[in-house]
Amino acid sequence: MNPRRLLLASPMLLSCLANALAQISPGEQAYERYRAWFTQFPPTQQAAVTPEQYRAHLQSQGLSAAAIDEQIRLIREQGPRAEAQRWNRILTSPKPTFNIQPNAFLVDMAKGRKPGTALDVGMGQGRNALWLAQQGWQVTGFDPAAEAVALAQKNAASLGVRITTEVTTREAFDFGESRWDLILISYAGGREVPAQIQRALRPGGILIIEGFHRDAARGRSIGGGVVFDTGELPKLFPDLRVVRYEEPVSKADFGQQM
Asked: In 3-state terms, what secondary structure has residue 43?
């Protein structure tokens, strides 16, 4: 029985994806301000960050107790929706600031492999899911950004391929057991559900991950879920055998203008 394998890459450069706060709702504004503050913490520290730390930060900015309570309420109630809306704006823009071509590392590693079942975690508008489907893979993808997922389905119809999609989060998705021949996580985290991912791979299957190195996040507003420390990724998946791991200083695959 062939071992399951882990293929990893971690480029270190990136440009910020900015949104104009004046064009979004108060809840989204509150979330964006929180996100900009939160992402200043190193990825390894973000899980320990508490609401009280943010409360203290807002106090240092001179906000009243009532204003702070309102900001925290908005973040708690509207944070997940605000994050999904942020990605809807980014991923469905008529002038995308991200790479709409398939991930180069995926293309390199998947070419020549016998097509089977593939899962695209955090699929966005489907740039990778569509390429896999065109190569003959049976593709399932999910993302919490509903408009981006709808665009992926629209593009699949235009290309004459079929993909299965779901609007959900990593935490809520049912990965199953021994279900996938290929799992792709391209700038979409992975730290949150390593056990589920390892169980979900079939024997002989591969996990392909690409994300940002911590050095790329310094001074920039990047969510910690897609940022990794040196040597961190292989340790997240101890049941898999690493067959390729890189930490190149190079242009990030996700962005066209990075």
From this structure: helix
Q: Say how far apart CA 86 and CA 211 lie, in whole Å.
A: 19
Please list, in sequence order, all residues whose beta carbon lies within 8 angstroms of the beta carbon of residue 70, skipping any fewer than 6 positions away. none
- Is residue 132 a contact partner of residue 139, using CB atoms and an 8 Å limit? yes
The amino acid occupying position 201 is L
Measured in whole angstroms, the distance separating CA 5 from the mean position of its chain's CA atoms is 20
Q: Do both 82 and 206 map to the same domain?
A: no
- Residue 108 and residue 236 in one domain: yes
Span 68-111, pLDDT tens digits = 999 999 888 777 777 777 777 877 877 776 678 899 999 999 98
C-alpha 72/C-alpha 76 separation (Å) is 6
Task: Tell whether 128 and 57 lie within a shared domain.
Answer: no
**Is the model's pLDDT at 19 over the cut of 70?**
no
What is the three-class DSSP state of 119? Answer: strand
Q: Token pair of 210, please?
A: 């690409």
Q: Are residues 73 and 119 in the same domain?
A: no
